[in-house]
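ARCHIVE CARD
CATEGORY: sequence design from structure
SOURCE FIELD: tokenized fold
FIELD CONTENT:
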């Protein structure tokens, strides 16, 4: 019958057949590694598999991963595996809360059902192929999520109480070192470190109003500070530095803190008058507009002065201030030049895998010394952590006095934090190289579209990711220059040359809008 081709397909789940399954185990906290939780979960899973006639083909998890979100590394790896391997009929967990405690747990289970994969529990043994079994499964998920909400509320109430008592509950602010960071908030002890001592001068210069933010940051860095320009306004407008606490958990409240003030309240207020009272000094705190995303990122080539932005008669413009004659340019023109620059990194989706492999190999060779250096830093951090633990043990046993303990604890802690700061500045190391390459490859499939669809902050992140030193603009020639390109993107360009060679040995373009070689500049036609 010819009309048979128009018949509707069944919406009912078609479960995979066979006896091959995977097992997933996890604990929420690394401290639970000390007990037998993971091993018990694995043994119970093996017993259940044997009772049900299943064969565990692969094990996932075996580590500490919070079930509050579904962005867990092992969890995602398992989901990808069962989607690829069509012989897998089920995922076996000890209990449904081990699978997921997020509100998306039911949705994930239904998505797996669409490809015929069941989610089974050792502890809650229900038939998920029936309506009643699916209802029971959803109830177990709901209880897991409810438990999470209760825990979060309890934690939040504790954080609010600490904040109102003057105890800081978030990460240690720049310029301070927390000597008791592993303790509860009320036992934290903050001291002002080297960066903090230098930051005092930053407050003084800001209050005087003679230097702009860029000049202040450059002077601080010349003195040895690790402060970043992008975070300067946020840091200098934080009342923590004059001894007070503010937090989104206590909106509208300013609490006297239990930590030492970096600067007097009068100096803090004067410095922030310079930030908020005069638009020609610093950067307005909330002046983030997606129509002028090249603010600060783009600089005039001759004065090396960053562009700021403004609106005039319905059009946005970029303008330099401070050094030499001001340079003005329409935002849509400069944005257009940058968009053309971005599009030159575009690669075809079909070359992703090949290029990723070539880039990883190339980077490992080029960055061999850096990767080895990163590994050495990690080893040194581990050694320092052991030294601190050993120091604490000796103090507890009264082998050393409190003065000696505090002296060497500060020394070890400061060295550890300095190394960690250096490591944080590195884009990647041997452990996350493939992950970084994958993300960059994904961006390169259509970097222009990623940029266009992003908000102001994400646009800036992408810009600095590809061009760490920003871009330079020559208005006279209407040319954009890129001082430095991220090494990963440079390697992608090199790999793309090889991957897109056609049968005649010629290099073909990845798309009609893209090129494989990034030029030093982009020029507009003289008529524009």
């Amino acid at each position: 019958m010819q009309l048979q081709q128009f018949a509707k397909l069944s919406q009912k789940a078609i479960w995979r057949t066979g006896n091959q399954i995977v097992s997933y185990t996890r604990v929420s906290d690394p401290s639970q590694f000390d007990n037998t939780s993971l091993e018990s979960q694995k043994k119970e899973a093996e017993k259940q598999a044997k009772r049900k006639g299943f064969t565990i083909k692969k094990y996932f998890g075996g580590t500490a991963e919070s079930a509050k979100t579904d962005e867990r590394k092992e969890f995602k790896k398992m989901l990808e595996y069962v989607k690829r391997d069509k012989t897998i009929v089920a995922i076996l967990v000890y209990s449904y809360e081990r699978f997921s405690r997020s509100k998306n747990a039911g949705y994930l289970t239904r998505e797996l059902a669409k490809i015929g994969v069941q989610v089974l529990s050792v502890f809650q043994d229900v038939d998920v192929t029936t309506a009643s079994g699916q209802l029971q499964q959803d109830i177990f998920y709901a209880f897991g999520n409810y438990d999470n909400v209760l825990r979060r509320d309890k934690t939040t109430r504790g954080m609010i109480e600490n904040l109102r008592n003057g105890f800081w509950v978030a990460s240690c602010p720049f310029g301070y070192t927390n000597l008791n960071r592993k303790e509860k908030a009320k036992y934290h002890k903050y001291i002002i470190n080297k960066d903090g001592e230098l930051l005092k001068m930053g407050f003084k210069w800001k209050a005087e109003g003679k230097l702009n933010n860029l000049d202040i940051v450059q002077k601080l860095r010349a003195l040895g500070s690790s402060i970043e320009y992008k975070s300067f306004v946020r840091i200098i407008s934080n009342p923590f530095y004059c001894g007070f606490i503010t937090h989104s958990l206590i909106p509208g409240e300013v609490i006297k803190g239990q930590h030492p003030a970096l600067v007097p309240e009068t100096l803090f207020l004067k410095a922030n008058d310079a930030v908020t009272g005069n638009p020609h000094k610093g950067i307005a705190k909330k002046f983030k507009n997606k129509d002028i995303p090249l603010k600060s990122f783009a600089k005039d080539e001759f004065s090396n002065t960053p562009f700021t932005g403004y609106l005039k008669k319905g059009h946005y413009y970029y303008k330099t201030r401070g050094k030499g004659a001001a340079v003005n340019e329409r935002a849509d023109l400069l944005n257009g030049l940058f968009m053309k620059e971005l599009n030159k990194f575009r690669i075809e989706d079909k070359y992703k895998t090949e290029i990723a492999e070539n880039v990883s190999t190339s980077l490992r060779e080029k960055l061999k010394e850096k990767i080895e250096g990163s590994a050495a830093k990690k080893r040194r951090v581990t050694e320092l952590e052991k030294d601190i633990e050993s120091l604490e043990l000796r103090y507890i046993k009264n082998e050393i006095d409190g003065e000696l303990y505090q002296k060497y604890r500060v020394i070890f802690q400061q060295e550890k934090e300095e190394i960690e700061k250096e490591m944080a500045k590195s884009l990647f190391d041997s452990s996350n190289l493939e992950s970084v390459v994958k993300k960059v490859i994904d961006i390169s499939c259509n970097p222009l579209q990623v940029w266009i669809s992003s908000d102001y902050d994400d646009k800036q992140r992408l810009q600095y990711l590809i061009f760490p030193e920003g871009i330079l603009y020559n208005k006279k020639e209407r040319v954009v220059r890129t001082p430095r390109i991220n090494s990963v993107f440079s390697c992608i360009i090199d790999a793309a040359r090889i991957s897109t060679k056609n049968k005649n040995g010629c290099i073909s373009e990845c798309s009609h809008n893209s090129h494989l070689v990034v030029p030093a500049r982009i020029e507009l036609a003289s008529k524009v």
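CARD ANNOTATION: The chain has four domains: 20-149, 176-277, 342-354+435-523, 366-427. The chain has 17 helices and 15 strands.
SHELF: design records, drawer C
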